[in-house]
Design a protein that fits this description.
The complex is a heterotrimer of chains A (502), B (321) and C (322).
Chain A: E1 11-20, E2 23-33, E3 38-42, H1 49-56, E4 64-69, E5 72-74, H2 79-84, E6 87-90, H3 102-106, H4 122-135, H5 151-164, E7 169-173, H6 181-196, E8 200-204, H7 208-214, E9 217-222, E10 225-230, H8 237-245, E11 264-273, E12 278-285, E13 289-294, H9 300-308, E14 313-320, E15 323-325, H10 329-334, E16 337-340, H11 344-348, H12 355-360, H13 364-367, H14 375-389, H15 405-414, E17 423-427, H16 435-450, E18 454-458, H17 462-468, E19 471-476, E20 479-484, H18 491-499
Parallel strand pairs in A: 3-8, 3-9, 6-7, 7-8, 13-18, 13-19, 16-17, 17-18
Antiparallel strand pairs in A: 1-2, 1-4, 4-5, 9-10, 11-12, 11-14, 14-15, 19-20
Chain B: H1 2-9, H2 11-20, H3 23-38, H4 45-70, H5 78-94, H6 99-122, H7 128-147, E1 152-153, H8 157-164, E2 166-167, E3 170-171, H9 172-190, H10 192-202, H11 204-209, H12 214-240, E4 242-243, H13 251-261, H14 273-292, H15 297-320
Antiparallel strand pairs in B: 1-4, 2-3
Helix pairs in contact in B: 3-14, 4-9, 4-10, 4-12, 4-13, 4-14, 5-6, 5-7, 5-12, 6-7, 6-12, 8-12, 9-10, 10-12, 13-14, 13-15, 14-15
Chain C: H1 2-34, H2 41-66, H3 74-92, H4 95-119, H5 124-143, E1 148-149, H6 153-160, E2 162-163, E3 166-167, H7 168-186, H8 188-198, H9 200-205, H10 210-236, E4 238-239, H11 248-257, H12 269-288, H13 295-321
Antiparallel strand pairs in C: 1-4, 2-3
Helix pairs in contact in C: 1-12, 2-7, 2-10, 2-11, 2-12, 3-4, 3-5, 3-10, 4-5, 4-10, 6-10, 7-8, 8-10, 11-12, 11-13
The chains are: A alpha/beta (502), B mainly alpha (321), C mainly alpha (322).
Chain lengths: 502, 321, 322
């Protein structure tokens, strides 16, 4: 399918630059897509992929650079311009409206005019929507509200929306992030069909397997610059990662695995929650890192939140340090539990507050038992943590929002070191941070268990689970589908347990 | 036939069936039954008509309020604006203006305030409740300045005929209310504008990515609120035959209550226009029933507050099940 | 090390309220030129007295706004608290009992707000806005159009008395400034309140007992309204149903002018004091220039809009930089 060199590019970007206050998001990037190819766009977080995508779809206007459509110079200055050239984008964060129907969402902004000005031809809209869904092999009534759909179905509606625009260039940002294996397969089949119809696809992905399986060409971005453009056969995954990171990295996180686990810290029996945890048993002992694996949507985060009391528990028992435990997060923290949540910005940090304020928050009752707060003492505590975790910030008083992702994550973990917690539940510790910071985070977690803590770690990156955990539970449909000891631990075994259907 | 009987025999299915009935229907039902027992006249024809007539002004505020709340906004200047528009309308009539001119002035006032609210919310991205709190203070102040605190009495037959008259045996006021409801329904469910209202609350980014000028539509929603308020001022002034500087102060609370009781949520553009109609009737029935029981108007407001809490409790309870 | 940190903290505090103080001074200078009556002891004491009443009300409200909430019921709260306090005083002749009931009613209303916001998870402005009308209704029903007047002199001193030539409410203002600043800056409760305002979910997952803290904050706001109602009652020496209605907007204005952000997590009680001072100066100036009092709500409305406008601009500026 490597027809790239034989035909002219459908769309070509030359010398695109985009400046934001303080950052050069894109620096002289050139980029071309050819009809019928899947063009993989890879790079670390912050490398400029999203910026490039937004320039492509007209959401950002480039400061410098030119666009050529089928060899002719054109201007893309707004989403409307981009649509006129057949560019459609599927964003990672869905662009769907919850209380509109599937059909209304597919044609949002492009409604079929009805008899009177301003009205909508509902009949035609639902008929057309049905056709498009059929194309995708979807059999859902087009009047269903998007609010009532699951994540995977929403993703499909998103794709239907792009298809309905007769897209010649389809941009996808990590489209498989929320999909099950089966849905991923269906998506790939559809991509191949679109390819054969001559549609050009720009595909952003973090998953090496996808990049090599689906890509006809790979463009690598780093720090806003294009650092390479290659064919899948020209590089190994390791070489690609090296290009992305700009230095050779050791992708394994060596640690001394736990030989003899210590006392029982956490025991969960038959846990059920309002959010779909369906009878979960697990244990965490002192000195071990226990993985909680499974596909996205299997209920891993929900288990963490139920144990922590962040979601309503509807059944079962949690024993913390061998004592029965129940109640909300405040009770959990008081009892010595720590949760490092999935979303740093939404759940982990008070972004407008200082590094110091964030670091001392969970430990306040411990550091100031008589409730009198002393700023000097708080700053001493914070400075000690900043030093210990090597958080790079000019001062403890700097607002957290000005820190990099990796340093923010260190703050999220660090704030629990000032509390009395010995049980850490860590949800996606390395999401959105670069490879260098990842190694540091894992070293930190390792240090915690060396000192007698127990860690329950959730991760979507199977390689992380395999490399870091002493043992792991694998979840499926809100239950524990299986348990793998250190010896049994492999990506293959996790997947087997995670996707199995009786 | 068998399916449904079997389903209703099992308690969980019965519960599922009952829980599909919206909370506002329960509330309306209980209110009607309660007042029917508590007072002799509640269910009489004239009284029911009375409830309808009294509810029309509230409906005309609650309809646009539903759309505004669906955009994750709110307009608490409506009561003060209604008052101001009514005062202006009465003033024009008292100075020998025609009814048309007076109505035009009232609509213009409404439009100006609605546009101002919308522009502050849309362009400057200011929180709607504070914006409208500010414009509420301004409208209240203007109404007082305009009248020196006195009523403007209007003896005008054409004006009186608006509220009192009937067409083909149907009271004109009810017709106006019905037209307002049908129009708003059409606007919300059958036009692009309506679709974009759902999107403004549910996912405004999706709307702007679709190339729609979101701000224009957001401003239009508030402007629609202003216009409806200006129109409602005609009925209010006609009913009272005067413009009074505190006539409708606080009426936006009844409107918000009706919308919330009717099941529209403050989040994600989850709105239901027919629910608002039921909510307006519930608030109207409550006020009327309490009137029959000679409960003072001030206490009625407290009861509406309780009604909102009950409605939220019912919906919350259903949500948990 | 310690002392430099303290100085740094003090400097930061001064920086945030510094230019607001400068603005207050500038208004004073302008008014001195515009009106001979401005720079008289009598008028200045009057301004201070009015500002202190406004501050008492707005200080509790500031804590609420710090949690990204709002209390629209403070004005109505003043009305009911004042009327109940007045009638108890009339009934029993005891100023102390009346005062206790006034604060108690304020506290109760605040608790009710807290329960609606924290437990029922209603949007704060809707919950407290509903409370406004509920309380308002109760007040009108309770007073039934009557006016109560003539209270014990000992009680009246609370509003109109002087000590060393300075009105008593001004002392109250400084007492509660100290208490408020201490509570918000020097207790862990204060830290948690700021954290809730900055990111409620993050605070919850960090073990901050959200429900308890929110109820506390609304209760404090209610109790402060109750206290303010006593000062107002003592000053007016009469109570009727619509007392206090005109206070909500100025109280919000004072907090916002003082630099408290409606989006939560930013602001200080001392800033609110300066805000109350600025607003009072503006209204006093309008009085001295014999501008019709009906203009006051209008001007206050515009000031609120301006304050929110600048707050929003700052917020957007910060988000753009990130």
């Amino acid at each position: 399918m490597n027809t790239a060199s034989s035909t002219a590019p459908l769309l070509e970007l030359r010398g695109i630059s985009k400046q934001f206050p303080g950052v050069k998001a894109l620096d002289d990037v050139s980029f071309a897509v050819y009809p019928g190819e899947v063009h993989m766009l890879v790079g670390e977080n912050g490398a400029g992929k999203s910026s490039l995508m937004k320039v492509l779809c007209g959401a950002y206007t480039a400061d410098e650079g030119q666009f050529f459509y089928k060899g002719e110079k054109v201007v893309i200055g707004s989403p409307a311009d981009a649509r006129a050239f057949g560019i459609a984008v599927i964003f990672q964060e869905f662009s769907l409206v919850p209380y509109l129907s599937i059909a209304q969402n597919i044609f949002l902004g492009r409604e079929f005019p009805g008899r009177f000005p301003g009205t909508i031809d509902h009949t035609k809209m639902h008929r057309e929507a049905k056709k498009i869904l059929a194309l995708l092999g979807l059999d859902i009534p087009t009047r269903t509200l998007v609010h009532d759909l699951g994540v995977a179905q929403q993703q499909m509606v998103e794709i239907a929306k792009a298809l309905s625009q007769n897209a010649r260039i389809l941009v996808m940002d990590e489209p498989t992030a929320a999909l099950s294996d089966r849905e991923t397969e269906r998506l790939f089949a559809m991509i191949r069909q679109l390819q054969s119809d001559g549609v050009a696809i720009v595909y952003i992905s973090h998953r090496m397997a996808e990049v090599f399986a689906m890509g006809d060409r790979i463009t690598v971005l780093r720090d806003g610059k294009k650092v390479g453009s290659l064919l899948p056969g020209e590089a190994t995954p390791d070489e690609l990662v090296r290009l992305m990171v700009g230095r050779s990295v050791d992708r394994s996180y060596a640690r001394n695995f736990c030989k003899t686990a210590g006392e029982l810290l956490l025991e969960v029996k038959g846990l059920r929650s309002a959010m779909g945890v369906n009878g979960v048993d697990l244990t965490v002992r002192s000195g071990e890192i226990v993985g909680l694996s499974g596909l996205v949507g299997a209920g891993r985060t929900e288990v963490a939140r139920a144990i922590f009391g962040a979601d309503r528990v509807t059944g079962g028992e949690v024993l913390l340090y061998s004592k029965p435990h129940q109640g909300g997060p405040d009770k959990a923290v008081a009892a010595g539990m720590a949760l490092i949540p999935e979303s740093r910005k939404a759940e982990g940090l008070a972004l407008i507050r200082s590094v110091c304020d964030n670091l001392v928050l969970p430990g306040l009752p411990l550091a100031f038992p008589n409730r009198i707060y002393k700023a000097t003492k708080a700053r001493q505590i914070a400075n000690a943590l900043i030093e210990r975790l090597r958080i790079s910030t000019p001062s403890a008083l700097r607002p957290v929002r000005l820190l990099s992702g990796g340093n923010q994550q260190k703050v999220v973990i660090g704030k629990w070191l000032g509390s009395e917690s010995r049980l850490f539940i860590i949800d996606e510790p390395t999401r959105g941070i670069d490879v260098g910071a990842k190694a540091e985070i894992f070293a930190l977690i390792d240090q915690l268990v060396q000192q007698g803590a127990g860690v329950l770690m959730i991760s979507s990156e199977l390689s992380e689970i395999v490399q870091v955990c002493d043992r792991t539970y694998v979840m499926r449909d809100g239950r524990i589908a299986g348990h793998l000891s250190r010896e049994q631990l492999s990506e293959e075994n996790i997947l087997k347990l995670g996707v199995q259907h009786e | 036939m068998n399916d449904s009987t079997i389903a209703l025999n099992s308690p969980s299915a019965l519960w599922a069936g009952l829980s599909r009935v919206p909370g506002v229907a329960w509330i309306l039902g209980f209110l009607v039954i309660g007042f029917a027992f508590a007072t002799g006249d509640f269910l009489s024809g004239p009284n029911l008509l009375n409830i309808g007539l009294q509810s029309v002004i509230l409906l005309m505020l609650a309809l646009p309020m539903t759309l505004i709340i669906m955009t994750e906004g709110v307009d608490i200047s409506m009561g003060a604006l209604l008052t101001l528009a009514s005062v202006v309308l009465a003033w024009v009539l008292a100075h020998d203006g025609s009814l048309m001119l007076a109505l035009a002035a009232s609509l213009a006032i409404g439009l100006v305030f609605g546009l101002a609210n919308g522009m502050l919310v849309a362009w400057l991205k200011m929180p709607p409740f504070v914006v409208t709190l500010g414009t509420m203070g301004m409208a209240e102040g203007l109404a007082l300045l305009f009248t020196d605190g006195q009523s403007i009495v209007v003896a005008n037959d054409t004006l009186a005929a608006v509220y009192g008259g009937s067409l083909l045996g149907i009271p004109q006021t009810l017709l106006i209310g019905a037209i307002a409801y049908v129009f708003t329904h059409w606007l919300l469910y059958h036009t692009r504008f309506g679709t974009y209202i759902f999107a403004l609350g549910g996912n405004p980014d999706a709307l702007s990515l679709a190339g729609i000028r979101t701000n224009a539509y957001l401003i239009a929603v508030y402007a629609f609120g202003g216009l409806m308020t200006g129109l409602a001022a005609l009925i209010l002034t006609s009913r009272m035959s005067s413009g009074h500087p505190t006539a409708a102060i606080g009426m936006e609370f009844d409107a918000i209550a009706a919308v919330v009781v009717g099941g529209t949520s403050f989040e994600h553009g989850n709105g239901w226009l027919f629910g608002t109609l039921l909510g307006v009737l519930a608030v109207g029935a409550l006020r009327n029933g309490l009137n029959l029981l000679t409960v003072p108007s001030s206490v009625q407001v407290s009861c509406i507050g309780l009604l909102v809490i009950v409605a939220l409790l019912i919906d919350g309870f259903k949500g948990k099940k | 090390m310690k002392s430099t940190l303290r100085i740094a903290a003090l400097a930061a505090e001064l920086k945030t309220i510094g230019y607001r103080l400068a603005a207050a001074l500038a208004i004073c200078v302008v008014l001195t030129f515009l009106s001979d009556a401005f720079l008289t002891t009598n008028n200045l004491m009057n301004v201070l007295r009015q500002a202190s009443l406004l501050f008492l009300l707005a200080s509790g409200l500031t804590l609420v706004i710090l949690t990204a909430g709002l209390d629209l019921s403070v004005g109505a709260n003043i009305g009911l608290s004042a009327c109940i306090a007045a009638s108890i005083m009339k009934l029993t002749g005891s100023a102390l009992l009346g005062a206790a009931c006034g604060v108690g009613i304020g506290l109760t209303i605040g608790l009710a707000n807290g329960l609606l916001v924290a437990l029922m998870r209603m949007p704060p402005f809707i919950a407290t806005y509903g409370m406004l009308w509920v309380v308002h209704g109760i007040t009108y029903w309770f007073m039934a159009g009557t006016t109560l007047y003539g209270f014990p002199p000992a009680f009246r001193a609370l509003g109109s008395g002087y000590f060393l030539g300075v009105p008593i409410p001004v002392y109250l203002m400084f007492v509660f400034l100290t208490l408020g600043a201490f509570f918000s800056q020097r207790t862990t409760y204060g830290q948690e309140i700021y954290a809730i305002g900055a990111n409620r979910e993050a605070a919850r997952l960090s073990g901050v007992p959200i429900v308890k803290r929110l109820i506390l904050v609304y209760a404090v706001s209610g109790a402060m309204a109750g206290l303010a109602s006593l000062v107002f009652l003592a000053r007016m020496n009469s109570a009727e149903g619509d007392i206090g209605e005109a206070f909500t907007l100025p109280a919000i204005a004072a907090a916002l002018i003082g630099g408290t952000s409606l989006f939560g997590g930013i602001g200080t009680v001392s800033g609110t004091l300066v805000g109350a001072l600025i607003l009072t100066l503006v209204l006093n100036g309008m009085n001295l220039l014999t501008i019709d009092a009906s203009w006051q709500p209008l001007v206050t409305g515009v000031i609120v809009l301006l304050a929110v406008f600048f707050d929003t601009l700052t917020r957007r500026g910060e988000e753009a930089r990130k």
